[in-house]
């Protein structure tokens, strides 16, 4: 399938899914375009659009937790960062994604 068309398919599908989770695409269009391009290539190679920023381990159950958009599996962690791990998606209220940073899951405070 044509790469541009597939990227547009991802955009359409992801927009609906992440909207319901309180997220939107990163306003940095160059970053979004780059990451979607990577996902198209990954899908061609592995059969699913796994995360461009997380390692595939080769176990289906584990790997499906990093199939984009993986937000439901990591919501507490991503909500704390206000972005997903790659930064493809950010919280709806984020206007300047350059202020955000990756924070390891182990550094996310646990609830008392
Ligand atoms: S971290 Fe972001 S880009 Fe990577 S799979 Fe999850 S939602 Fe997609």
Search tags:
single chain; 112 residues; mainly alpha; Ferredoxin Thioredoxin Reductase; two-stranded antiparallel ribbon; 4 helices; 2 strands; 5% strand; globular; binds iron/sulfur cluster
Q: What can you tell me about this protein's structure?
A:
With about 110 residues, the protein is mainly α. It has one domain (about 5-105): Ferredoxin Thioredoxin Reductase, CATH 3.90.460. It is about 40% helix and about 5% strand. It has helices at about 5-20, 30-45, 60-65, 75-80, and strands at about 25, 90. It has a two-stranded antiparallel ribbon with strand order 1-2. The longest helix is centred in the middle third of the chain and has 18 residues, at about 30-45. It is globular and about 45 Å long. It starts with a helix and ends in a 21-residue tail after the last strand. Bound molecules: iron/sulfur cluster. The site of iron/sulfur cluster has 13 residues, from loops.
Radius of gyration: 14 Å
| Mean pLDDT score | 96
For the largest beta sheet, what order do the strands appear in spatially?
A: 1-2
Sum up the overall morphology in one term. globular
- How many DSSP-defined strands? 2
CATH topology: Ferredoxin Thioredoxin Reductase
- Which molecules other than protein and nucleic acid are bound? iron/sulfur cluster
